[in-house]
User: Which sequence fits this backbone?
């Protein structure tokens, strides 16, 4: 019989107790009544719509900025801009997200644009998207940088001898080669955006039907004592997250298989 | 003419190139035998424009290109592992430089004929053998109508039997272009097959030699001195 190591004895029960069990607790507490009431609530569907729209744009902005960082990573790694950007990439991870939300509120929550009112961008869907972006961008930047690190620099050298400027070589060679990493960066940013709560509440607010997202909907329902609805909305979030993780895994397998054929 | 004059390059206190000078005439196929750690990679980067020398000049086609970026040098480059663009087809790879108005459809067809690439134009590089990948890399560089060519061990992925077929083909194509060609290799047999002149790079310097055999005598001598 195989000898069970201490690490296995430690890992298996703790993993199931602390990770799997809480998720199962949500799923196990979903009731038909809770589902009926939640799915009949137009505010819930507004929160779903708001979440998907803002996370879509937050992830898009995150990937665009991450590609900009990737450009510096490849072509200007010795510059001060790169060094600051590299350092700041880890900053939002270490920062409490309430602080991130307050920072955004102080920066953009005042009359500074002609189209914005006295509270600036705060408490709008744009604010929600910016808060999501702020906390999800580092994931995108790290994913792009990790893949850029593996690029054969001769590809860029050849492209440049064939007439490409650094920007052209980046657009015509590096970005297509980074295709898989860009997809992963987008999905990870999207997933991170879906789960953001603190920064969103601070900068975007929690106005039902306007700036409320799924995470804040769950919070509101718990506050109102509507546990059945909170549980249903949470289970919906779990389903969305599972779909994202599954997409990432299946895409990864498909890519590995196709790459293997070559 | 491809000319490097008194090029120096150091990284911190480490001197990598110690006054390298080298001349390759149009139609000449000079094989540079680079020993490990001799500064070959640094020289390549300086030639392609990816690195600036501390001192010295690089001239291509009579023009001083020392301060110019790679895209303004008009130098064709075939690296060790061909560096084909995997997301593009063979045809798109070869026509890559046309985007910048370099080369023409006519040159493209000529290269495709010379290197027998017609049946593979619609394929992706990953579907080709090492030998055909090298042919595509050569066709891509030559279609851009460069003023000089730089080949860095371009057929390392090819086995000996296929090399016997590819090397004369590469030689005839390169000689036909009538431009200076610098070809880097470690293999004396390969050097003999392709070169019209030879030089050796050692301790940050390049010296002209008469034959690849001479280069490898130097290599053996150094190995003995190093006690290997």
Assistant:
């Amino acid at each position: 019989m195989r000898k069970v190591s201490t690490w296995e004895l430690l890992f298996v029960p703790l993993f199931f107790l602390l990770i799997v069990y809480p998720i199962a607790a949500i799923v196990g507490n979903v009731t038909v009544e809770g589902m009926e009431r939640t799915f009949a609530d137009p505010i819930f569907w507004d929160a779903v719509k708001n979440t998907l729209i803002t996370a879509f744009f937050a992830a898009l902005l995150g990937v665009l900025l991450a590609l900009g960082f990737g450009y510096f990573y490849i072509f200007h790694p010795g510059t001060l801009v790169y060094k600051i950007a590299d350092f700041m990439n880890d900053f939002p991870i270490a920062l409490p997200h309430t602080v991130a939300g307050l920072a955004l509120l102080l920066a953009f929550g005042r009359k500074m644009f002609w189209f914005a009112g006295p509270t600036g961008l705060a408490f709008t869907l744009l604010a929600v998207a910016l808060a999501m972006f702020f906390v999800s961008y580092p994931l995108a930047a790290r994913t792009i940088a990790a893949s850029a690190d593996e690029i054969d620099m001769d590809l860029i050298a050849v492209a440049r001898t064939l007439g490409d400027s650094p920007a052209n070589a980046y657009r015509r060679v590096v970005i297509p080669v980074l295709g898989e990493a860009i997809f992963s960066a987008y999905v990870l940013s999207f997933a991170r955006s879906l789960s953001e709560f603190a920064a969103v509440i601070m900068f975007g607010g929690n106005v039902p039907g306007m700036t409320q997202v799924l995470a804040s909907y769950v919070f509101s329902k718990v506050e109102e004592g509507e546990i059945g609805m909170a549980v249903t909305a949470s289970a919906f979030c779990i389903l969305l997250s599972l779909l994202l993780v599954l997409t990432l895994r299946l895409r990864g397998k498909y890519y590995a298989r196709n790459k293997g054929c070559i | 003419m491809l000319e490097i004059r008194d090029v120096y390059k150091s990284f911190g206190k480490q001197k990598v190139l110690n006054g390298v000078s080298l001349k390759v005439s149009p139609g000449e196929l000079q094989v540079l035998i680079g020993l490990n750690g001799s500064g070959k990679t640094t020289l390549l980067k300086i030639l392609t424009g990816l690195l600036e020398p501390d001192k010295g000049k690089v001239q291509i086609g009579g023009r001083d290109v020392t301060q110019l970026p790679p895209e303004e040098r008009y130098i064709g480059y075939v690296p060790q592992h061909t560096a084909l663009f995997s997301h593009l087809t063979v045809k798109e790879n070869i026509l890559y430089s046309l985007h910048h108005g370099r080369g023409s459809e006519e040159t493209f067809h000529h290269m495709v004929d010379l290197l027998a690439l017609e049946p593979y134009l619609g394929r992706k590089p990953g579907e080709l053998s090492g030998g055909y990948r090298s042919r595509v890399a050569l066709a891509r560089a030559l279609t851009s109508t460069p003023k000089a060519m730089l080949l860095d061990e371009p057929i390392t992925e090819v086995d000996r039997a296929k090399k016997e077929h590819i090397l004369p083909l590469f030689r005839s194509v390169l000689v036909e272009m009538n431009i200076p060609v610098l070809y880097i290799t470690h293999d004396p047999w390969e050097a003999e097959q392709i070169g019209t002149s030879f030089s050796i790079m050692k301790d940050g310097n390049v010296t002209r030699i008469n034959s690849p055999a001479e280069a490898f005598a130097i290599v053996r001598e150094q190995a003995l001195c190093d006690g290997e």
